Amino acid sequence: MIPLPRTVLLAGAGLIGVVYLISTSQAGSSPGDPKPCTFQVTADVLNVRAGPTAAESWVDSLQRGEEITATPNVVGGFRALGDARWAAAEFLAPVPGSTCDP
Q: Distance between CA atoms of 12 and 25, rounded to whole angstroms?
């Protein structure tokens, strides 16, 4: 057996740890991974608005049962869906396993 300096052993162990952490944190690495901030539409049709009020212009609509990725940001009862897209938070139910607060 060839003796290795302690610094080489520590560096190797650190590299293995980093590789492990990267491989376990990749999205979709296993079917049981939590769904980050994912919601299901509970209204028959949910209007998506350009801002966090009902007075904002309509930009899209979502159908009952659709899953949508959103942000944790809720303003005046509207949840930010990203890219100037907002929907009424009361019609978005967190998907089981979602990491986002309701």
A: 20
